[in-house]
Amino acid sequence: MPETNHELQNEVAGLIVSTLNLDVSPEEIQPDASLYGEGLGLDSIDILEVALVVSKRFGFQLRADNADNVSIFSSLASLTRHIAANREK
Amino acid sequence: MTALSTLPLIAHRHLDAVVAWRGSTPVSVRQFLGEVEYVAGQLPPGRHVLNLCGDRYRFTVALAACIVSGRVSLLPSTHTPEMVRQMQRIAPDVFCIADQGADVDLPTFRYPESMPPPAVTPAIPDIDCAQVIAQVFTSGSTGVPVPHVKRWGSLVRNVRAEAQRLGIGVGHAILGTVPPQHMYGLESTVLMPLQSGAALHAGRPFYPADICAALASLPRPRVLVTTPYHLRALLTEQATLPAVDQLLSATAPLSQDLAEEAENRFGTPLHEIYGCTETGQLASRRTTAGLEWQTLSDIRLRREGQTLWAEGGHIDRPTCLADVIELTGGSPVSTTFLLHGRHADQVNIAGKRTSLAYLNHQLNAIPGVQDGIFLLPQGDSPDSIHRLTALVVAPGLIPSALTQALRERIDPVFLPRPLLFVDALPRNATGKLPSQITQDLLTTLQAQSATREPA
């Protein structure tokens, strides 16, 4: 990941923790570990909550083919890359 | 009551009528019937099916193929490894039908990628009203799901009454944000379109922008079948909303404020549907018009001492309701009522239902757990989601291992947040856990946890 994304990644980790009121600190989220299922344990309700916050903060709306395809959320790093590529603010 | 002995698979009258939309491409009745017949001929011998198709059209074809071949679809509340094992115990011949990677440990029939062209004039099959087409499950108190059979005649009468109440029929296009594998989605996004001559949308859009795009791709009149949780996300994120001609919400009560905002911004009435696993859909209300529910045609609620029965309409035999219901109209038999809440043991998070007894059984079945209890969330605002808490005595287990063991057994929405480890639960002399004492312990633990958090 480019150096410039580190700051964004930290911000996204902070957004996830604060939005969901998680019992971990942002630094504890492993960039390449799964955000849902066995990793951080987020489910579709959490993902929708985070999506709303991401949309508001970065000025673009997340899209997916269907409800089973939320691959943007496969890891903190992939979510950060997606935001970096699509953000409008 | 004189009941017909068979009812047709679909209510559409012409082979060229539209039965589904895949994106903006229509699927005709002719094509649908051809695919149903083809899939029915390919299925393996088992008589019980777990239909995991993610595409709603493929789910519908697979369901119809099971119906015309006399198979029973199993509809458990979740697909965790433990629940799949329980389905296998109930029906050892169960296999799953999947249209993408299925993550269950069952023999799998892969939904065909391509099919031969349909016959020129396929016939619409008639289905015996007494045929069991599905089994749905409630959470038993002993950790074993309790099956309830669904017969074709009763299901059809139920969704026809729903369509009649909502004014849905030929020409309507129906989009759902809920999965077809649960009762609400099965009834309102699969069976109601099939039995009213309407068309179902094959997708299940997730993000608000996807829901709006899918709606905009459909011809009008359009119907959105959703939940309070998706509705709130839509209204929060989307500045402009596509026109919709009917909104339907279920799975949890909606506040009148959210209902009013939805009606104003979509420019259409919003109705809520109330039902339960045992009876199917029972009543509806237009939330902005008042909190009172009106039963669907010919259904009555009858109070007899402490017991409340639902009867008439599509209900084959009087069925006892567990919810806290006040009949209105001043008589012990009524078609209108107020709903004051679910039964105390019932848990409903984002529309998924289970019971505390079931969750507690699963928690205590994990090796290393000496004692444990789930607690209901204290917050009670209807439009936001609150998670469960669990207190557990498990000195040899680390939290991540316990969470992982729970994930194998219960749906992820019920995973406790927080999961709190304690030395012992404050059980009284009879082994019971008085709720006030448990809540006091929880308050103390949460206060301790808050003081440890960094500023």
Q: How is this structure best described in words?
A:
The complex is a heterodimer of chains A (89) and B (455). Chain A is mainly α and 89 residues long. Chain A has a single domain (5-23, 34-86), classed as Non-ribosomal Peptide Synthetase Peptidyl Carrier Protein, Chain A (Orthogonal Bundle). Chain A is 47% helix and 0% strand. The longest helix of chain A is centred in the first third of the chain and has 16 residues, at 5-20. Chain B is of the alpha/beta class and 455 residues long. In chain B, strand 11, helix 5 and strand 12 form a beta-alpha-beta unit. Chain A binds chain B through residues 23, 25, 37-38, 41, 43-45, 48, 51-52, 55-56, 61-64, 66-70, and chain B through 54-55, 100, 177, 179, 203-210, 213, 229-230, 233, 236-237, 349-350, 385, 403-404, 407, 412-413, 415, 417-418, 454.
Short description:
Chain A: InterPro entries: ACP-like_sf, PP-bd_ACP. The complex is a heterodimer of chains A (89) and B (455). Chain A is an all-alpha fold.
| Poorly predicted runs of 5 or more residues of chain B | none
Class by SSE composition of chain A: mainly alpha
Which class best fits the helix and strand makeup of chain B? alpha/beta
Roughly what fraction of the amino acids of chain A lie in strands? under 5%
Strand percent estimate of chain B: 25-35%
Termini separation of chain B: 68 Å
Architecture of the largest domain in chain B, CATH level 2?
Answer: 3-Layer(aba) Sandwich
Question: Which fold name is given in CATH as the topology of the largest domain in chain B?
Answer: Rossmann fold
By CATH's scheme, which homologous superfamily of the largest domain in chain B applies?
Answer: ANL, N-terminal domain
Features of this protein?
heterodimer, A: 89 residues, mainly alpha, Non-ribosomal Peptide Synthetase Peptidyl Carrier Protein, Chain A, 0% strand, globular, B: 455 residues, alpha/beta, Rossmann fold, GMP Synthetase, Chain A, domain 3, 2 domains, eleven-stranded mixed beta sheet, six-stranded mixed beta sheet, 28 strands, PP-bd_ACP (chain A), ACP-like_sf (chain A), Acyl carrier protein (chain A), ligase (chain B)
